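Obj.: predict assembly geometry.
Materials: sequence records (below).
Method: joint structure prediction, all chains together.
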Amino acid sequence: MPEFFNVLPPDDARALLLQHVRSIQETELLPTFEGLGRVTAEEIRSAEALPPFPRSTMDGYAVRAADTFGAGDVLPAFLTVTGEVRMGTAADMPLKTGEAVIVHTGGMIPDTADAVVQIEHSQLVGTPNESRFPYEIEVFRAVAPGQNVIQVGEDIAAGATILPAGTCLRPQDIGGLLAVGVSDVMAIRRPRVAILATGDEVVSPASVPSPGQIRDINSYSIGGLCIGAGGIPVFGGIVPDDIESLREAAARALAGADMLVMSAGSSVSVRDMTVDVIAGLGRPGVLLHGVATRPGKPTIVGAIDGKPVLGLPGNPVSAMIQFNMFGIPAIYRLQGLQQDPFHRKISARLTQNIASESGREDYIPAHLDETAEGITATPIFGKSNLIYTLVHAEGLIKVPLNHSGLMAGDMVEVQLF
Amino acid sequence: MPEFFNVLPPDDARALLLQHVRSIQETELLPTFEGLGRVTAEEIRSAEALPPFPRSTMDGYAVRAADTFGAGDVLPAFLTVTGEVRMGTAADMPLKTGEAVIVHTGGMIPDTADAVVQIEHSQLVGTPNESRFPYEIEVFRAVAPGQNVIQVGEDIAAGATILPAGTCLRPQDIGGLLAVGVSDVMAIRRPRVAILATGDEVVSPASVPSPGQIRDINSYSIGGLCIGAGGIPVFGGIVPDDIESLREAAARALAGADMLVMSAGSSVSVRDMTVDVIAGLGRPGVLLHGVATRPGKPTIVGAIDGKPVLGLPGNPVSAMIQFNMFGIPAIYRLQGLQQDPFHRKISARLTQNIASESGREDYIPAHLDETAEGITATPIFGKSNLIYTLVHAEGLIKVPLNHSGLMAGDMVEVQLF
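Observations (raw structure tokens):
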């Protein structure tokens, strides 16, 4: 039997794994919109200022602010409207003292103007025909220089960094890039995650199992989690429980991928075999065998030459929880992300007490409800190897390492799948 | 000028819109794994029990529980081991009183056994050769009937509902379906969301804008949000600000899609034109013009014959916030989802005071930090039309309708993009 490594707390275990993950260096150039969800391979700077011209934030009149100083309801300022800046055209008319031009929201203001009077704060003098310039207006409120104007470069300055390397592109980032003419982005290649199922009892989901056999579901639940994290699952099929088959399948799968996940059987002999196989794949091999969590303690965490390798417990709930804990952060790290995105945990109010053991992190599937007082989490108790506890759950309640349990009414952290 | 509708609070406005959305009835049959993220069109029942045979949750011995009653360290029970159930094979050996068979975690137990003794709670008598049955063991702990066994159908019963219609398939759902041999699923067709940009100042992101022109970014930031909600963006391009062009483009876009989004200019005249165009497309037309939020008040919410139609403000931040508020729930509803998924809001501790006006919901872009005390949210103040306030943000702080502001230290709701 191989040497057993220490059982580490999950945060330490994950940190140890991530230390051994080398980010993918291969990149690909993508049209910006197709970069959604992808991670930038290099810092992106703006060649242009945004906006490239001073823009009005209101419908109204571009003015020289000084011409309105002291204006009020009793003593309005009188200005002469000399023209209109039509949308999409340059504001190339000069503005003399005492003059104003019509501008629309988002339109350019002349460089001789420095503020915009909102149309509601003005009034025509007499009943002129607006199409016949010049005409007179009264202005009832003073505007400060710069008021109701977005200055050149106020959104982003020319030469400024738009996004650092290692940014996962969201819709607003796509918008920010396109706004300054960045029409393609250099992204990290998506990680290929090889997934092997092992076990003499495991058959393809397309089969009708004989007595004693079960269908492989871990490949696909783990595969689904991969996709959500930006990885590409590469299904390696089902490998029998003998060490030579497993060695060969693991070596071949790892060679063609950036990460290897083995969903092993749960018996001790199969776990030991998985440890041996990972140890034999290269350096450093097995980093730890055992994590202080329930479910999932017998997880094997390793790395081979910068590629993360996981040996997951065979039971489908443990496998998903452990992949969520180690596999997803590893896929992010392979893409060069330094921090997980912020969408994987929420706070909720617990509806029932939960007992736990100190010194171990527990994860309990939970049903979430949206109530007038906020989100509540109701634990779904059941044997940890029933996939339907997860099907009926919206998240996992985390019982922290050094708690002996949680009480109804406590605010708890819920991890979402 | 058309009649102005009441300005509604956002929750009421959204409820009004969703009342007018008709879910898509067209379905498509997909291989189960390809159904990830798709919504089920019909209830799915299990034809099989899971597990289909009683399974051990431990490495150990399948026994008749009654044979161990009263066993303890001082007075162990003696049992005769008559064989082994190998993984993936049927446990077809009968078990007489006083007999036991070796079973592995996940393996089948004989139907004449009703419990499993963990191997750690037993000891061989003498030093027999394990491969030579029968041999004797001592058992030091009693097991109850059913202990360490998953019963037939304990995960899911034959004939039970696996998932109701209108479920968005997650990785664990894929696993649950494959486990019972459901190899394809009937899913709602993905909604096609037509997106039109309007504005004489708007040019394609591939263009170099002249003075007074800006690039269309809303089509793509909104398109990105569509994809995240399961929709397919259909880019209709840029339409000039004249009513006939707009009418024609909107009618054509709506005919080929399940939803229409017009990212209109922000000036009053353009908004009025958008209202007229939506009103002219069919019934019921414009549902409301104005939502009590900042940014985004001038949003136009409508529906034509079950298809949602939105007229978004032209400024990119308002457009995204309003699409998040109305567009995403509408895309979910088109797919038959009755409730948004739970991943769009988190709680965080506010780091600075925020002033607001009562009677209006404010959304303020926020930078999130993960600290030892939990997630903190720091508001990013700035004119609401700067896309980079969103690029630098991880979420939006919501200031509820009837608050005059929020204080540093308050727990606040943060919506994530």
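Conclusions so far: DSSP finds seven helices and 28 strands in chain A.
To do: check interface contacts against the pulldown list.
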